[in-house]
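Dear all,

This email documents one entry for the complex benchmark we are building for the journal club exercise. For each entry we list the sequence lines for every component of the assembly. Then comes the predicted three-dimensional structure of the complex as a token string, followed by one or two observations. Please use this as the template for your own entries, and keep the labels exactly as they appear.
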Amino acid sequence: MYRSRLLGSLLWLTLLACAPVRDLEAGERKGKAADAKALLVDGLRFVRHAIGLEKDTTAVSHTVSLSPRDASVELELADGTTRVVALRAGEVLVDGAPIGHYRAGGALDRAWRRLLAEGAASDTRTLLAAVRAFKVSGLAGDDAAAGRRLAAAFRNLTAASPEETAAGRGGVAAQAAALATQGIAAGLADSIAKVLTMADVATLDSLERALRAVPDIGPNIAVSVRRSPLRVGDVTVQAGEVVRGNLVVFRGDVDVIGTVTGDVLVLLGDVISHDGGLIGGSAVAVGGRVVEAGGTIRGDIKTLTTLGRQAAAQGEGAARRSALDRLFNDVGTVVALFIALAMVGFGTVFFGRRYVEVVADTTTHSFGRSFVVGLLGQLLLLPAFAMMIVGLVLTIVGILVLPFAALAFVLGTALAVLGGYLAVAHAVGETVTRRRMANGAFVRSPNSYGYIFTGLVGLLGLWAAAALFGWIGPVVALFKVAAVLVTWLAATTGFGAVLLSRAGMRETFAGRYSGEMTDEYLWATPPATPTAARTGRQQ
Amino acid sequence: MAAASPLPAQTWRTLTSARQRHGETTLTVNVNYGAGEFRLGAAPEGTLYRMELRYDEDRFTPVRDYDAEAARLALGIRGRGGRVNLGDRRRGEPVPSLDIELAPDIPLILDLELGAVKSRVDLGGLALRRVRYRTGASETDLRFSQPNPEDCEELQLEAGAAAFRVWSIGNANCRQVRFDGGVGDVTLDFSGAWRGEMAAGLNVAFGTLTLMLPRGAGVSVRVTRFLASFERTGFVKRGDTYYTPGYDASSRRLALDVRAALGGIDVVWTGAGR
């Protein structure tokens, strides 16, 4: 078998050597030369195989990959090598090296895809046999030339020729380099997201500006800082690893044992060029040093220690917010919250004054009861939610309304808490107003809007105090704790009052009397009521 | 002149990978699959594994790592980020899928981690030493259609919000079975060719747990429940444990320790002659 194929190959070689080449077109000559080369390789392999020099490799695994973009088969041999044949983007590739062109959707493409689709379902040996027998008749142009070279490649598919191996290695090396670059890019995004703080950003900005001002290396390095991918933390370029372009590292050391084709720029760290390492450009350490430990640095070596420290200090300074900024920010937040709550409160009063008043009266008249109910309500919220979910899940129909029910539950709870809080603000405002009036103060228009305004001023007062005195330092924590407690107390009581009063529809606990006024009510009745006004007019 | 065809919204790729057996004596298999349809079964003899993966290559990267020295195989997909395309059957789009076949003739340690997956897994015919099956919001049909020739240490099952059905657990030949379930409808069928005693710890949070128990087997059930019902027909209570009549004389025994909250535990007797 081998002998007959060897003889065939040699015969082909002889014929090709004797054939007149004058009238061949350039492309054809190139194609024939490639065919001859493939046949020569084929023949030499069979010679080696026949005399026992060729390793008898077998395929142990295969991977077929099909998509509109490409169609490829990868065969892994028992000795660990991998052979890949792919039709991709108009090129026929063997181990990553192009051996010809094909027409997308043409006869070769269609036959190749059919072979892989059918062969994918087979075991590796069957697929290999099918691939070896792959032959398409009636091909023309590029497809024909590629088909011939594919056939030659398939005959030797389980044992790489020296040339193919070299090409494969080149392909693998290129692929490894590409993967390394992709890996670095992915790592960069990840590390930047995880490690870089706003202070670091400020430091980097300072560095970039400072470096631009350095006359000898400034502009280029500054551009590198701005445009090159940035790695954060220690980086090692391993032996055999190639980083194409510049390597910019922030707050870490760079150990170069492999190759960096561009500049290595370390911001606040050292560059260490180890034995065997190669830096194709300059090695620059800002806020660190460049250590030559046997490696080669083809460009300049620059160390800018002071500049780095200054930039780091500036960065930290810039990142530190001034006390005044914080004061404005915190006070602004409280004011915005006040305005938002007041607007919601006014809206609630406008559309449902009666309900707000009933809930507010419930908090005033049944404060303890409201608080306890609110507390229990908070504790039971989660179990109630879970039970509702389970109940709906268990009834098959309920699954359909599950999302709406869950949303309604969350929305209802949020509204109850917010409404309750505003009702407490109303109650606080009303109590304060009435007491002021009882003490003889003149209040132009005592109404629910005013009560909510006054109540919110009272409830948010502690937050305002915490914001205003935040610059003092740890003492402000007391204000904050008090503010949190008061807010929680108000929200809990309000929530309880909402539950007790059925969102303002039940007056049972609101202390509202339909009969005659009690002493308590009379005490609370301000002098500026219509009754008092009428009394004044009568006099 | 040929008109340019519109570019597809996503690029579906079909990846088929297979490996022949080459002296392996054991294999640890990790499968990680996030969304789509998943099927697993036994491969023909001589095949170590075979995988057919259909995925959106703009969103996912296939995983097929085989470490011959460690005898470890990792299969599945890894997301690249972005919106996950689960296909649309109404528009005739095929859904993403992963089909795996594993060697039937070497001992396997199987670790399956599945997300929102509709899975059909038949571990019958595989030589299983340990199985861990984790799934999120899924519809699972896991069966042991044939007896496991290997002694299995543990069958560990975890399901989130799922319709989870396991058939013929007796064929798994595992000494220990563990099930942890979140919300859903769970059916555990303990029929099959038992070889000895089996202990099962079952934790179910919300939902219905249906236990399919073989008539004639000695079954003991210890139930810890909160707002959950338990169908105790066919059991006799001794202490805090329920026993089937003739439990003490039975050669095949199954000890169930069930913890359930908010739901129901139903018992269905299978086979003839209890």
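Observations: The interface with chain B takes residues 59-69, 76, 78, 120-121, 123-125, 386-387, 389-390, 393-394 of chain A (CB under 8 Å). The longest strand of chain A covers residues 59-66.
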